[in-house]
Write a structure and sequence with these properties.
This protein is of the alpha+beta class. The chain has helices at residues 2-10, 31-37, 41-44, 59-71, 118-140, 165-169, 173-177, 182-187, 190-206, 249-293, 297-327, 340-355, 378-394, 429-432, 454-464, and strands at residues 15-20, 25-29, 75-82, 88-98, 109-116, 144-150, 156-161, 210-218, 221-233, 239-247, 335-339, 361-364, 373-377, 401-408, 414-420, 468-474, 478-485, 490-491. The protein folds into four domains: 2-116, PAS domain (Beta-Lactamase), CATH 3.30.450.20; 138-247, PAS domain (Beta-Lactamase, 2-Layer Sandwich), CATH 3.30.450.20; 253-327, Helix Hairpins; 335-491, Histidine kinase-like ATPase, C-terminal domain (Heat Shock Protein 90). The protein has a five-stranded antiparallel beta sheet with strand order 2-1-5-4-3, with helices on both faces. A five-stranded antiparallel beta sheet has the order 7-6-10-9-8, with helices on both faces.
Length: 493
């Protein structure tokens, strides 16, 4: 019967050793094992199984094998086997008693079936190394790195969360991944929980990126958290978010302080502007009366200079106040439908006053264009257009030319353009000139009043209407400024 068992094992591709129990001496090694391990069957006969063990078989594994063979039961262990050339490989060793007594031995026989698991062990080691690497990277990132899952049945849990949650929420990562994810929700401010859950559900339904800011408690204090993640849907219907939670408490408090400071500044500017405008209007009014009522030409000229200076100062105060309102989002538009030529008429009158005593050419092409009406705030848009025309005068030397025009663009928007043949700007200056109080030091602009708010205010007015201000310029070849209004502000008929 033993010979029949040996013959059966010889016919299969699986590695098999037949052992005498309980000594674990090798009675037979089938060809599959001999081919893999590099031994001949006869040189293994009588050797102890332990003689094939590699260097990394711990004592507890040896004791486990001895206990199985002594008990007469079946069992499995993972061990390292040494080949004849001293190379090693890992196997899963399945020990099963064979119901045939061994000749000359009272302990019976055991079949040891060996399955090569070297690749599996290496894969496990690689996965463990990758997990350790991910954990190390995640723990080194400020805040919390996590993976959050909502199963198709609605179950919610964190499959991974970095150790930063201890600092952020006062909860250990192991507690969260063990199923205590509700503790994070409990830490969120009660009034913020519903909005947080709605934002997650909306991200799940639309698979859109999740971005949410909320307040949570950590110990005795409150913190502001910004969460962001990108979801994806698995084939089983679950939704998975991989993302980050960042503590933005300092930034949030700094923003609140900045907003308070901005409001204080705006309130101050509004109050001081009011206090300055009242006496200035009186100065301008009385100087105008004196200008027209004085017979002495020199005195009348002095009064005219007082009026012009007072008007310039009033314009400056109004510009600063407008900028303050824009910064605070308090710019309210009084909208009305307006013909473009009618809109520009007061601006052109002001321009002609600036051209007095200058040898500059000016052409107004608006009257010959077939233009629609615009739904706009007339006062603010006129101020923006006046700023563009004023800049053209400032930066165009005598002998140059200024052109006011308008045209429909391909997307249905309307552009009012002011083009000059002046000194132009370098590409690096095209964005800088929109910053408040910035003036390019050209020497030419120093002959004119201004503090560098014109383009800032013009762009803000355009953006308040949903439009923009664009500049095209080259040094020595002039500048074209376009005040562009979107199609929804264009009215025909």
């Amino acid at each position: 019967m033993a010979a029949l068992v040996d013959a059966a094992y010889a016919a299969i591709d699986t590695m098999v050793l037949v052992l005498n129990a309980p000594a674990a001496s090798i009675r037979y090694a089938n060809p599959a094992f001999c081919l893999t391990a590099g031994y001949r069957s006869e040189e293994l006969r009588g050797k102890s199984l332990a003689a094939l063990f590699g260097p990394h078989v711990p004592p507890q594994t040896r004791r486990r094998i001895d206990a199985i063979l002594a008990s007469g039961d079946s069992g499995r262990v993972e061990i390292m086997i040494r080949r004849r050339n001293e190379a090693t490989f890992w196997v899963e060793l399945a020990l099963n008693p064979v119901a045939v007594a061994s000749e000359g031995h009272s302990g019976g026989l055991y079949a040891a079936v060996l399955r090569d698991i070297t690749r599996h062990r290496q894969d496990q080691a690689d996965i463990a190394h990758a997990h350790d690497l991910i954990q190390a990277v995640a723990n080194g990132v400020p805040g919390v790195v996590y993976q959050f899952i909502i199963e198709a049945d609605g179950r919610r849990y964190y499959s991974f969360i970095s150790d930063g949650c201890r600092e952020l929420f006062g909860i250990e990562a192991a507690e969260i991944t063990a199923g205590s994810n509700d503790r994070i929700l409990a830490a969120v401010a009660p009034e913020a929980r519903a909005a947080l859950l709605r934002s997650i559900d909306a991200s799940r339904d639309t698979l859109s990126p999740w971005l949410h800011v909320f307040r949570c408690r950590n110990g005795d204090g409150w913190r502001w958290i910004r969460g962001s993640a990108r979801p994806h849907r698995r084939a089983n219907g679950s939704t998975v978010w991989n993302g980050m939670l960042i503590d933005i408490t300092e930034q949030h408090e700094a923003r609140i302080a900045a907003e308070a400071a901005s409001k204080a500044k705006s309130d101050f500017l509004a109050n001081i502007s009011h206090e300055l405008r009242t006496p200035l209007n009186a100065v301008i009014g009385f100087s105008e009366m004196l200008e027209h009522g004085l017979a002495d030409a020199a005195q009348a000229a002095y009064a005219a200079e007082i009026r012009r200076s007072g008007k310039s100062l009033l314009d400056l105060i109004n510009a600063v106040l407008d900028l303050s309102q824009i910064d605070d989002g308090r710019l309210v538009l009084a909208e009305a439908e307006t013909e473009v030529a009618e809109l520009a008429a007061p601006c052109v009158d002001i321009l002609r006053g600036h051209l007095a005593g200058r040898s500059l050419g000016f052409e107004n092409r608006l009257a010959v264009r077939n233009l629609p009406r615009l739904l706009i705030d007339r006062r603010h848009v006129r101020q923006a257009l006046t700023n563009l025309l004023s800049n053209a005068v400032k930066f165009t030397p005598d002998g140059g030319r200024i052109t006011l025009d308008a045209a429909m663009l391909g997307d249905g928007s309307l552009a009012i353009s002011v083009a000059d043949t002046g000194i132009g700007m370098a590409p690096v200056d095209l964005l800088r000139v929109f910053e408040p109080f910035v003036q390019l030091d050209t020497g030419l602009n120093r002959r004119h009043n201004g503090i560098g708010l014109g383009l800032t205010l013009s762009r803000a007015v355009a953006e308040a209407h949903g439009g923009l201000v664009s500049l095209a310029s080259e040094p020595g070849r002039g500048t074209a400024a376009n005040l562009i209004f979107p199609a929804e502000r264009v009215r025909w008929g």
